[in-house]
Write a structure and sequence with these properties.
With 64 residues, the protein is an alpha+beta fold. The chain contains two helices and four strands, in the order βαββαβ. It has a four-stranded antiparallel beta sheet with strand order 2-3-1-4, with helices on one face. α1 packs across α2. It starts with a strand and ends with a strand.
Length: 64
């Protein structure tokens, strides 16, 4: 599992948008609004795709 910090995720609507987009990309993720984290279950390509999805949505994702 890889944790991506998304510090600019501020509300439940943000979390819902991220979860929907990740689901559409067929990624297995958990979104934690309180910690501003997206946890990706999968390979390095899955993490790369998740970062791209976040970027497309306007969120800055940082691994760690």
């Amino acid at each position: 599992m890889t944790v991506i910090k998304a510090e600019d995720m501020h509300c439940e609507k943000c979390a819902e948008r991220i979860m929907k987009a990740m689901s559409e990309a067929k990624l297995d993720v958990q979104v934690n609004l309180e910690n501003k984290e997206v946890t990706v279950k999968g390979c390095d390509q899955c993490v790369k795709t998740a970062l791209e999805v976040l970027d497309d949505l306007g969120f800055e994702g940082v691994i760690g």
